[in-house]
Amino acid sequence: MRRILATLAVIALLFSAGSAWADFDDGWAAFERGDYATALRVFRPLAEQGDSASQFTLAGMYIKGWGVPKNNAEGVKLYRKAAEQGLSPAQFILGIYHYIDLGVGVPRDNVLAHMWLSLAAKQGHEAAQEYIPKLESKMPSSQIAKAQELAAEWWEEHNN
Fold first, then answer.
1. Which is it for the CA torsion 79, 47, 5, 119, positive or negative?
2. What is the CB-side half-sphere exposure of residue 1 using CA atoms within 13 A?
3. pLDDT band, very low/low/confident/very high, at 92 (cuts 50, 70, 90)
4. Above 50 in pLDDT, residue 31?
5. Sequence ranges of the domains in the chain
6. Rg of the chain on CA atoms, in Å
7. Half-sphere exposure of 39 (CA within 13 A, CB side)
């Protein structure tokens, strides 16, 4: 999971800008060497300022309990904030959480799973693209249509 988180965080770095980039790099270096206290000190204020890469990374720390008490609700909240900003790895994770009951407190909901996975896939997230047909095979056409409608509405609202 740590390797996956690392890969996704590198992708998330593309969404960071300005001085937050250097701060994020410092936090990421601390995270990689297992210095979670320093990583937390770096990521928390960046996440509070709306940096999606920091929100994403901090979310993983809460879900796994790395340097913080394990707190699924806080992790999911941070993933959602990053996803709402259009960060495709966060959208992918929310889609997976809604698709497969992973015990993090997100209700199984194929419509929301499809919506989040579709948004990630639209941005080229390959794993999301692979999950959609699997998910659709378990959904009636009315649910697929609803999910597509929600994704289109989200996309229009966030990209105009």
1. positive
2. 8
3. very high
4. yes
5. 1-85, 88-160
6. 16
7. 23
Give CA separation, 155 vs 33, 47, 66, 158, in Å: 37, 23, 33, 5
pTM of the predicted model as reported, rounded to 2 decimal places? 0.85
DSSP code string of 15-72:
T--THHHHHHHHHHHHHHTT-HHHHHHHHHHHHHTT-HHHHHHHHHHHHHTSSS---H
Q: How far is CA 50 from CA 54, 82, 106, 119, in A?
A: 8, 8, 22, 20
Sign of CA pseudo-dihedral 60, 61, 65, 68: negative
C-beta of residue 157 within 8 angstroms of C-beta of residue 119: no
Query: Residue 2, SS3?
Result: helix
